[in-house]
Amino acid sequence: MLVSYKWLKELVDIDVASAELAEKMSTTGIEVEGVTSPAAGLSKIVVGEVVSCEDVPDTHLHVCQVNVGEAETRQIVCGAPNIRAGIKVMVALPGARIADNYKIKKGKIRGLESLGMICSLGELGISDSVVPKEFADGIQILPEEAVPGQEVFPYLDLDDEIIELSITPNRADALSMRGVAHEVAAIYDKAVRFKAFPLTEGDKQAANQLAVAIETEKAPYYAARILDNVRIAPSPQWLQNLLMNEGIRPINNVVDVTNYILLYFGQPMHAFDLDTFEGDRIVVREARAGESLVTLDGEERQLEASDLVIAVADQPVALAGVMGGQATEISDKSSRIVLEAAVFDGKSIRKTSSRLGLRSESSSRFEKGINAATVNEALDAAASMIADLAGATVRAGIVQAGQLDTADKQVSTSLADVNRVLGTDLTYADVEDVFRRLGFGLSGSAETFTVSVPARRWDISIPADLYEEIARIYGYDRLPISLPQDAGTAGELTATQKLRRKVRTAAEGAGLTEIITYALTTPEKAVEFSLNPSKQTELMWPMTVERSVLRQNMVSGMLDAVSYNAARKNKNAALYEIGKVFEQTGNPKEDLPHEINSFAFALTGLVQEKDFQTKAVPVDFFYAKGVAEALFDRLGLEADYRATDQLPSMHPGRTALISVNGQPIGFVGQVHPATAKAYDIPETYVAELSLSAIEEQLQPAQPFAEITKFPAVTRDVALLLKAEITHQEVLDAIQAAGVKRLTDIKLFDIFSGDKLGVGLKSMAYSLTFQNPEASLTDEEVAKYMKKIQQSLTEKLGAEVR
């Protein structure tokens, strides 16, 4: 919102520097982005009167004799198409500074001396988007009363200061000069002085010419006035200056008045050419499928059922609250006009303007809300101004439909609550003074009081809003400073955060690199590597099918990352991810899915590159399993690995189901060759573990145990076993012997061959024994070995070699 400081001072009696005002407003709730002046950086630009103007043969140039208030006229060469004798213009004298700090010097053009420059608004730094259409391709013509030799800035209000406000959605009341005036008046404890717009109506009744109707709940109120005998002409200079300073291009006296009212009241308005209407009834309704409208910018817009339109003779003539239609726009031939003022649903306006890319000053105000109490007042003010500037006759009466609630809103609270929330010791008189300055009504007492909030402050509805208003106007800088009363709590990591850090440390210690993949995927990939697939949670309006369903595993996303790297010749990849997968046990359309913390990794390529000393070592199942074991070792957990063919997308002979204490927590293995081909990746090994399940299995930290002073004893044993017996079964059999002093079991050799016999293999283990309280004797160790050998023989049929 751009605010003219000259205009603001007409509405509120203040006389402070603009910088001070900006600081004061920023500290009371409305941030000021900055203060600028159109005349900043300009100098030695004066009024000039063109005494004579002669064409230069065979060129577009003109030789002008210009009176700039000096004893003699100045000769200036000008190429503007609208230059002529008898007009007042802007002249930059030699030594003048114009836009971009350009300095004007004496010079010659086509051999003709030029002692200055006749300027356009663009050359003074005024944006082309706000220059009046009649001067867009030429120089600015000044009013007749301009005195030659005087500075031009006051005539064009270039000496004004423009305050740019950053309006938050809750303070849309400040999107009008009246709203800003109320705010400034409250800050400085001044009274507002708003301009009166006397309106004289003619004898003819507007209702005899036009009727209005509302056929949608999205338009609570619609009102219109009719004006006859309108003479379309340029607006007076003061109005053009004001609009340009506010960033709006002057068009003509009718359109400029609607924009003036928009700025003054914050009430969007539109003017129709009544002679273009094919009916005598305006209907506010929702658009129908297949309808279209050519808007004022000349574009044909295809309408949707959610759009609000203004229709005449059942044909759309305007997009309500966004932009008018080209067929009914005001032109130089217009003599009868219809002025509309309305209240439209902000959500509907926002959807239409966003869909069509038609963001306008009107739509932004309807989106944030407007003051319902001044709709008719704004309409009457516009009619009064057009009658004054265009010689129009205003028909009697407002044609309207719908109703508006303009009553004050009643909000109650107590002085005790005010002081409790703000930490102050205010008296009831202090509160009375604040609401007096704001222009709010107040009744009651310190125990309980009620504030009557006018309709212009629709952002205030609950007691907390009142506390904010009191703090703003009383002064944030005057609020007492105090330290928090409650003792702080020591921050610490949650169990989940601690687990994630341990897992991340273990993964990176194993040489893995962390990545983050999408939580949204395709319906097929969502369950591809899931041990227990659940219902799928789908987005209602996905941007693409590739991102339409919440994942139930992370492996599929990691394989996409492996594929991306492999396609770019990065064939050695060791990646991991810590994230969430989503399990849906309820109704996917109503219930939120259950979030499960998960860890996954993917390995492909070589563990060790080939060089002159060593062979290349590719990733295999045991390397992937080793990464998982290193993780469990860091977490202090014992994991079991069982071969599984439960996952069709994994290799059935190289995939293991992982469980801890009998609880399945994930899997590790090779991606099935067919699946790898589908992802266009080389041989890849993956694992996925449920961190939520692992967290449940974690044991409390063990207390420190003193390191024993007594030595350990090691014995080796070689077993002849059936080929199908697994390492885990051997471990279980050894543990079943119940030897308390057995502290470690290590497999150090596996052998099979014809010498042993068909279907047999040899496995050699190193067993470590240790007593923390005394040294072990050979007899004790022999007894332990005998028990272990006996258990192996009974449970596995093992033969000790």
UniProtKB/TrEMBL annotation:
Compartments annotated for it: namely:
Cytoplasm
What's the chief localization of this chain?
cytoplasm
Taxonomic lineage: Bacteria, Bacillati, Bacillota, Bacilli, Lactobacillales
Q: Name one GO molecular function term.
A: ligase activity
Q: SUPFAM superfamilies of this UniProt entry?
A: Anticodon-binding domain of PheRS, Class II aaRS and biotin synthetases, Nucleic acid-binding proteins, PheT/TilS domain, Putative DNA-binding domain
> The FDX-ACB domain covers which part of the protein?
708-801
Q: Which family does it belong to?
A: Belongs to the phenylalanyl-tRNA synthetase beta subunit family. Type 1 subfamily.
Question: What is the protein name stated in its UniProt record?
Answer: Phenylalanine--tRNA ligase beta subunit
Query: Out of the domains of life, which is the source?
Result: Bacteria
Q: Where is the B5 domain?
A: 406-481
The organism encoding this protein is Streptococcus panodentis
